[in-house]
Specification:
Radius of gyration: 18 Å
Shape: elongated
Order of helices and strands: EHEHEHEHEHHHHH
Strand content: 5-15%
Distance between the termini: 16 Å
Structural class: alpha/beta
Number of strands: 5
Largest sheet: 5 strands, parallel
Helix content: 40-55%
Strand order of the largest sheet: 1-5-4-2-3
Length: about 200
């Protein structure tokens, strides 16, 4: 992918017009991917990108690669990581949220014919942060005031997350079993990427 041919970020209209010629890599967790993804997207969670570098590099030799997540933040960070390894990619502005809001279809894997209760990473972070803050406040009132420091720590972490556009809690939650791909799934995805 050359800079003049493909901008660093594509909006939903640009991506929609070129979807048939793009290799789309969804860097969300498997659970988020299963809840709905761009047609033809391959799921390589952001924490597995290093393992997929050779396949992604070969994919860019065959055509342009679009990296997607829920809102665009993880995919932007993934594009930066790939650029550090000499792999040019583009990100979808606004991610799958903007894609769906623009009226485009989201597909689900065939194994998801029975709807599965899967929460987006953002929702998982909001739930976890809120639960820890409430527990810290409750234990601070019922057990010892020092437990309120847990709530203050979460608040500080959320501010840091917003300022740096990173999320340590999301990185930790991504390691939970329901958010991690099975090795066979990742191997199959990398094989599909090689065969494109």
């Amino acid at each position: 992918m050359t800079a003049p041919r493909t901008p660093v970020a594509l909006d939903t209209g640009q991506a929609g017009d070129r979807l048939h010629e793009l290799t789309v890599i969804d860097v969300r967790t498997p659970g988020e991917y299963a809840s709905g993804h761009l047609p033809g997207a391959l799921n390589i969670p952001v924490d597995h990108l290093r393992r997929a570098l050779p396949e992604i590099r070969k994919a860019t030799e065959r055509g342009d690669v679009l990296v997607v997540c829920a809102s665009g933040a993880r995919s932007e960070n993934a594009c930066k990581l790939l650029a550090e390894h000499g792999i040019p990619t583009a990100t979808l502005t606004g991610g799958t949220t903007a894609w769906a809001a623009a009226g485009h279809d989201l597909h689900q894997p065939a194994v998801c014919d029975i709807p599965r209760a899967t929460w987006s990473m953002e929702r998982q972070v909001r739930f976890t942060a809120g639960a820890v803050v409430l527990l810290g406040l409750a234990f601070g009132l019922l057990v010892h005031p020092a437990f309120q420091l847990v709530s203050a720590g979460i608040a500080g972490g959320l501010v840091f997350s917003a300022l740096t556009n990173t999320c340590g809690m999301a990185a930790m939650l991504a390691k939970l079993p329901h958010n991690r791909p099975r090795a066979t799934d990742l191997d199959a995805t990398l094989t599909a990427l090689r065969d494109r």
